[in-house]
Amino acid sequence: MRNPHYSRRPTMRDIADELGVTQATVSLVFRNKPGTSDEMRRKVLETADRLGYVRDESARALRSQRPTAIGVTFRTHQPFHDELLDGLYRAVSPGPHKLVLSAVSDSRQEKDAIEELISHRCGAAVILGPRITDEQLSVYSGRIPLIIVARRSDRPEIDWVTSDDQQGMDAVVDHLVSLGHRDIAYLSSSIDASGSARIDAFIQACEGRGVGEHVQVHTAGITENDGARGVEQMLAGNRRATAVVAFNDRCALGAMEALHRRGVRIPQDISLVGFDDSTIASRPTIDITSVHQDTGELARIAIERAAARMMGEEPAAGDHGQIVATRLVVRSSSGSALSS
Stretch 9-15: mean pLDDT, rounded? Predict the structure, then answer.
């Protein structure tokens, strides 16, 4: 909390005056440089906290001519993005980099969010689940290094990190087939960053396990309402699936609610699987089987690559992307197929 003794924003000079040391000593502490004792470091940090001192990262970046802030675009109302943000903050702390957030929403386009990060002189931008094309992203990469999360890119100038959707879908279909399921439906979200890749992974997993001819794909989306609409489409069809796999956990939750309204029991009448293993899936009253994405590792790699790009480091040829392993977390929403 800011000390009421100061009517203006406290500075490093104020901290130095309080302690009777030079401003250079205070600066060494905040820059994590050698030359001060552990005791002096403790005193500087305690005094800074007491005075309410907050470092002006933008001014520091301008002085050094090397930006230290990493920008992040994220989509609102997305639990998966919330968990990625937590991971990004853990990845930059402690360290010289700070995060600048710029939201994408129904009323704010992705390009506007990226432009804001450029205007703030961020040294790199981490784009969570981008929906704009590689061609559009490539234009921005000429102005700021880009690292995209939850989608691949064929552009060598764009770094990317994503979860192994194929590994996740293989685990899902293995699990359902082992329970006797053959008619499996997928609720897709083709507009999302990983939408088309996840559809392909689902179909390939089914074909590889001999249930490809029974595959159903219904258009849904990323929200609860989308999941409910996708389930209604499935129930209106000629063939009811015995298991439903949703694009993400929000979609799965909407599907669950729609099935409950129709009097369809989970998992006795139909099994349900989500994707992300978010806090939604793990709620005791929801308890949805879901594919776990390692948000901590995704975030760590994104920050590592952003920091490297800011230092002018180029990845080796063909090494501008990484895939992070996934795993299936089995809960009570999946069970044996109903005997015909």
Answer: 84
Cα atoms in the Cβ-side hemisphere of radius 13 Å centred on 125: 32
Distance set, CA 130 to CA 81, 266, 285, 293 (Å): 11, 33, 32, 17
- On whether the CB atoms of residues 250 and 280 are closer than 8 A, the answer is yes
Helices (H) and strands (E) in the chain, counts: 13, 12
Distances in Å between the Cα of 5 and the Cα atoms of 9, 14, 50, 168 are 11, 11, 11, 57
Compute the distance between CA of residue 35 and CA of residue 330 in angstroms, rounded to an integer.
53
CA gap 42, 48 in Å, rounded: 10
Query: CATH number, domain at 38?
Result: 1.10.260.40
Ordered strands of the 98-104 beta sheet: 98-104, 69-75, 124-128, 146-149, 159-163, 321-324
Q: How many whole angstroms separate alpha carbon 261 and alpha carbon 245?
A: 19
Distance CA 79, CA 87 (A): 13
Q: Note down the domain range covering 141.
A: 63-163+295-325
The H-or-E segment that residue 71 falls in is strand 69-75
| Tokens matching residue 285 | 């009253």
2 located within any domain: no
Say yes or no: 133 and 69 in one domain.
Answer: yes
Helix (H, G, I), strand (E, B) or coil at 336: coil
pLDDT in tens, 203-247: 999 999 999 998 999 999 999 999 999 999 999 988 889 999 999
Rounded Cα distance, 302 and 149, in Å = 7
Report, in this order, helix, strand and coil percent for the chain, each rounded to 5. 45, 20, 40
